[in-house]
Amino acid sequence: MKMDSVLLMAYVDGELSAEECQEIEKEIAVSPDTAELVAQLRASQLPYAQAFAQQKLPPVPDSLTEAVAAMARAHAQRTATPGANDAAVTRDAFTAPSAPIRSRLRIAPQWLAVAFVAGVVCYGIGTRFLPGFGATPNSSPTATLAAANPEEPGWVAAAAGYQQLYSRETVAQVPVNAELTAQTVDEIQHQDGLNVRIPDLSQAGLTFKRVQRLRFKDKPLVQIVYLPQQGAPIALCVMKEGKPDTTIAERRVESMNVVTWRHADLSYALIGKPEGTDLPALAKRISDNDVQTLFGDAGISMLAAN
């Protein structure tokens, strides 16, 4: 069986037969490259479409819709009456019939307005969430996350904006892969240079779901996602910053509550919805090292041990 990314993605998504899965698992056992690709595909399984579907988008202003419709009507009027020197279009027996020109012109303003408005909305979303979208020649290099609020410290605002897309359904069904998580933490520590451990927050009613290696302005940014017993997911984000230590500080970034602190050149941001978990109290426990560790102690995983 020839291995390619499409086949491996189908394997990761559980769309192959038992025999096909056995063939791929044999290849994974003997091929480090295949095993690494499968691990990367599993790491990208987060259902972003479901999260994005929960995002509330602002309504398109009526003035914009009317302006686009007026532009379309003006264009239709300019092209409706052919000039004396316009080329004539002939039709013979072999030419497929088409809708009358004027009927198409009456339809044009409607779909043209819809297309333009959709483009405006998509552009607004893209410049906020997509990497490097809308960059200027003087802007910094492209990053995985773009700042959502320029008044907030860049990476904190970006992480909070990203977390807004999460709903409970986003990670509720995501299984915890202990082996892959331990590997990811090892890469964070040795490749990204961040001495990050995944705290066990189960005593606070939070279940660990996954850890992701992100980037902001070409610098490593770690996102650790937890699911409370009720409500939206909570994220602990970590980024390396060579700045003095700071105590816990609470702030509001758009619709998210954010608690930040800094210790040993690592900046932390605990991000969640206003309702539910007491984020400041939880942040104090984490900063005081008053929690157990799930992953990160010499490669030992409490989940794997259980």
UniProtKB/TrEMBL annotation:
The Putative zinc-finger domain, residue ranges: 7-25
Pfam families the UniProt entry points to: zf-HC2 (PF13490)
Superkingdom classification of source: Bacteria
Alphabetical UniProt keywords: Membrane, Transmembrane
InterPro entries named in the record: Znf_put
Name of protein: Transmembrane transcriptional regulator (Anti-sigma factor RsiW)
Source organism (scientific name): Paraburkholderia phenazinium
Lineage: Bacteria, Pseudomonadati, Pseudomonadota, Betaproteobacteria, Burkholderiales
